Amino acid sequence: MVDAGWNADPSGRFAQRYWDGARWTEHVVDGGGSRLVDGPAAAAAIAPVSKAGPIVMVVSAVAAALGSTMPWATAGLFSKAGTDGDGMLTLLAAIVAGGVAGIAVGAVGARVVAAVLGMLAGIGIAAVAAYDFLDVSNTEIIEPGSGLIVTGLGGVALVVGAIVTLAQRR
C-alpha cells in the first residue's frame, strides 16, 4: 500500500492528497501549495492504487537476473554462463530495473520513472537475449541455453509490467 502521508492525488484533481495509512482523506493540496478540503464523498470514491505493475516488474527483473547467470550456450556436456559475456549487461539492467521497481511498489510518485526505466531495461534485455539466441542458433554444435530463454522472457515481462504500471497511473 501507499505510505501514510502526502502523496500524488490518484484522482488527478489536486497535486497531492493525504493517505492516512488506510484510506485517502479529503485533505488535499492544490498546484499552488494551498491546503484545501475536498468533500469526504470524493475522497471515499478514490480506489487505492494497485501494486500489480511494479510487482510484475520486480518479478520479471529477478527472472532476467537469474537467467543472466544461467547457461546461455551449451555444447554437449559443456556450457557457458551468460555472465561470461553479454549476460553481465542484462544482469546489471535487471538489477537497476528491479531496484527502481521495488521502490515504486511502495512509492506511488516513483512509478512513472520506474516504468520508463523498466521499459528501457526490458527492451534492452530482450534485445540482447534475442541477438545472442540467434547468434548461438546459427551454429551446428552449440545450442542456446536455458538462461537465454529465461533472460529474454524476463525482459519481455519487464516491458509488460512497465506498460501495466503506466496504465494504472491516474
Indicate the topology.
Layout: E1 5-8, E2 16-19, E3 24-29, E4 35-37, H1 40-44, H2 52-69, E5 71-75, E6 78-81, H3 87-106, H4 111-137, E7 143-144, H5 146-168
Provide an overview of this structure.
Helix content is 55%, strand content 16%. It has five helices and seven strands; from the N terminus they run ββββααββααβα. It has a four-stranded antiparallel β-sheet with strand order 1-2-3-4. It has a three-stranded antiparallel β-sheet with strand order 6-5-7. A hairpin with a 5-residue loop joins strand 3 and strand 4 (35-37). Helix 2 (52-69) packs antiparallel against helix 3 and helix 4 runs antiparallel to helix 5. The longest helix has 27 residues, at 111-137. The protein starts with a strand and ends with a helix. The relative contact order is 0.18.
Amino-to-carboxy terminus distance: 16 Å
Structural class: alpha+beta
Secondary-structure element string:
EEEEHHEEHHEH
Strand content: 15-25%
Treating each run of at least 4 consecutive H or I residues as one helix, how many helices? 5
Low-confidence stretches: none
Strand order, biggest sheet?
A: 1-2-3-4
How large is the radius of gyration? 21 Å
Q: Give the mean pLDDT.
A: 88
Number of strands: 7
So what's the overall shape? rod-shaped
In which range does the helix fraction lie?
40-55%
Largest sheet: 4 strands, antiparallel
